[in-house]
Amino acid sequence: MSVYELWYWPGIPGRGEFVRLALEAGRIPYRDVVMAAPDADSGMSAMLDDMEREDPAPPFAPPYLVADGMRIAQVANILAFLGDRHGLAPADPAGRYWAAQLQLTIADMVAEAHDVHHPVSVALRYEDQMPEAARRAEAFRAERMPKFLDYFERVLAVRGDWLGGATWSYADLSLFQLAEGLAFAFPQRFAAVIADRPHVAALRARVAALPELQAYLASPRRQAFSDGIFRHYPELDGVD
Amino acid sequence: MSVYELWYWPGIPGRGEFVRLALEAGRIPYRDVVMAAPDADSGMSAMLDDMEREDPAPPFAPPYLVADGMRIAQVANILAFLGDRHGLAPADPAGRYWAAQLQLTIADMVAEAHDVHHPVSVALRYEDQMPEAARRAEAFRAERMPKFLDYFERVLAVRGDWLGGATWSYADLSLFQLAEGLAFAFPQRFAAVIADRPHVAALRARVAALPELQAYLASPRRQAFSDGIFRHYPELDGVD
């Protein structure tokens, strides 16, 4: 088995980070192809070429994982593969579909968190869609953030320490990353919402303390949030 | 094995239709629980109660399928289950992850098509977010619709008749439904875009002609588009 290759945009944790956390916590060797390039431009250029080459199963967008001769794209799909192959999710069918279901709900919230600062078009800058972003941010803070986090709180209140089994699964790692992103992007609102969701707060702390992740989280490979999916614009945050 | 139960909002095809098409084309017996209720209100009320009951694996949102003692939510996850269990996708790992990847990309476009008319908040009516919708519609028509359909065109140009194998998979059914929805919501723009994507147009016609689907498509159970995910507001359509 050759070492897996992860392909993702350089310079942001973005959606690639959900995959990185699973690879790191699972102690699965991988090559972070674009990050390993001599510079960001050449890495990105190599990725764009790689995406365009003739292939019966091309990715629509990064991240994608090259593994066992396959090119696997879409975060939830990559994680399902890693879950199946490396035991990063329950192995029984019910547990397996449950982890996938959780991951897709996390992915939905990630997409909504992104669209707060890009409610009109990904081809425009935030500065060109600020009035729309202000309205969407208000709805995200007031309705969507509590609704999604209430759901995870409800699950954890029944299940205990982990979302999907007796130990962590890729979904727990992803919920941690989602919480980190929300705390970065909406520090005031997230602090208010998480104060009433102790199980989600505890899950976040539990993942942050996983022995398997300490070396990675302390390394320069763990990238800070900046201008990717989760962005901090003070005018989009608020206590309510 | 008990008959599967499908739970979804009454009155719209919505995301439930991607599941219905797979169940119908796969000739899998199921009970459409809410549609079978005496009236829409009591059906919806029963579903809301069902979603709130104590369960270690609750759905975040409909549709969900009750199958073999599991409650499986998220369209791509339900379809992966049906694919695994009923051969509605290639059985080898590469084909299986590929079908899931396609489905997730279809789901991304479905979500974007929805957000055209609800770019600010799902809790507001379209009439309360029309200026934002006009801008998002322009970007969706000009950038996103060609980009997504180019991707499926590229895949079909290499693969031939079907997206994922020697015969149809659930992803083909879903791409058909997506094309139907786009043709309903954006008739002018979709006609212009599809004219240059002959493989997607042919796939749509091929699924529409599947013998397995004829009885269903001609039945009253096949609901018309109205005010669900795909909505036709003439002011959001245009030739470019």
TrEMBL record, chains A, B:
<dbReference type="InterPro" id="IPR010987">
    <property type="entry name" value="Glutathione-S-Trfase_C-like"/>
</dbReference>
<dbReference type="InterPro" id="IPR036282">
    <property type="entry name" value="Glutathione-S-Trfase_C_sf"/>
</dbReference>
<protein>
    <submittedName>
        <fullName>Glutathione S-transferase</fullName>
        <ecNumber>2.5.1.18</ecNumber>
    </submittedName>
</protein>
<dbReference type="GO" id="GO:0006749">
    <property type="term" value="P:glutathione metabolic process"/>
</dbReference>
<feature type="domain" description="GST N-terminal">
    <location>
        <begin position="2"/>
        <end position="90"/>
    </location>
</feature>
<feature type="domain" description="GST C-terminal">
    <location>
        <begin position="92"/>
        <end position="236"/>
    </location>
</feature>
<dbReference type="GO" id="GO:0004364">
    <property type="term" value="F:glutathione transferase activity"/>
</dbReference>
<keyword id="KW-0808">Transferase</keyword>
<dbReference type="InterPro" id="IPR036249">
    <property type="entry name" value="Thioredoxin-like_sf"/>
</dbReference>
<dbReference type="InterPro" id="IPR004046">
    <property type="entry name" value="GST_C"/>
</dbReference>
<dbReference type="InterPro" id="IPR050213">
    <property type="entry name" value="GST_superfamily"/>
</dbReference>
<dbReference type="Pfam" id="PF14497">
    <property type="entry name" value="GST_C_3"/>
</dbReference>
<dbReference type="InterPro" id="IPR004045">
    <property type="entry name" value="Glutathione_S-Trfase_N"/>
</dbReference>
